[in-house]
Amino acid sequence: MSQYIPQVTDEDIERLISRDFPPETHDEIWQLTASVTVHERLRVIAACLKNANGRIKLLRGELYNADGYWREAISEAEYPKIKKASRYSDAEIHEKQKQQYLKWFNES
Questions:
Q1: Per-residue pLDDT of the chain (108 residues; tens, 9 = 90+)
Q2: Is 2 helix (H, G, I), strand (E, B) or coil?
Q3: What is the Cα–Cα distance from 96 to 99, expressed in whole angstroms?
Q4: What are the DSSP calls for 22-43, one per residue?
Q5: Which DSSP helix (H) or strand (E) runs through 92?
Q6: Phi/psi zone of residue 53: left (φ > 0), alpha (ψ -120 to 50 degrees), beta?
Q7: In contact, 56 and 29? CB cutoff 8 Å
Q8: What DSSP character marks residue 68?
């Protein structure tokens, strides 16, 4: 079974920053994102933005650590802990994780 992998663009990152953070922090955020150099860079940045939940101090730490801990950032953002009740199959759990991520990603 394959899991959902978000496809993130530069425009998505711009939208997420504008949506979730005050305008006076945008220049700093763009500078911080420039230092992220991992494979799937935009996906990792989106994960850091989600994990920070609008808190610039937390985002600084997320982006600072992104190159070394990118798997953890993605895991926290895209695969939150969903209690596996006996009534859910693995496919249903993956679908719930995908839906929660897309709900956040596509908010206005």
A1: 677 899 999 999 999 999 999 999 999 999 999 999 999 999 999 999 999 999 999 999 999 999 999 999 999 999 876 655 567 787 888 888 899 999 999 998
A2: coil
A3: 5
A4: -GGGHHHHHHHHHT--STTHHH
A5: helix 90-105
A6: left
A7: yes
A8: T
Give the C-alpha distances (Å, rounded to integers) separating 11 from 8, 18, 23, 53.
Answer: 8, 11, 16, 19
Judge contact between 38 and 67, C-beta under 8 A.
yes
The two structure tokens encoding residue 47: 């994960």
Q: Rounded CA gap, 107 and 27, in Å? A: 22
Q: Model's pTM, two decimal places?
A: 0.86
Report CA-CA distances (Å) from 6 to 31, 42, 56, 61. Answer: 23, 10, 23, 22
Domain layout of the chain by residue ranges = 10-105
Q: SS3 for 106?
A: coil
Burial of 33 (C-beta count, 10 Å sphere; 0-12/13-18/19+)? buried
6 CA to centre of own chain = 9
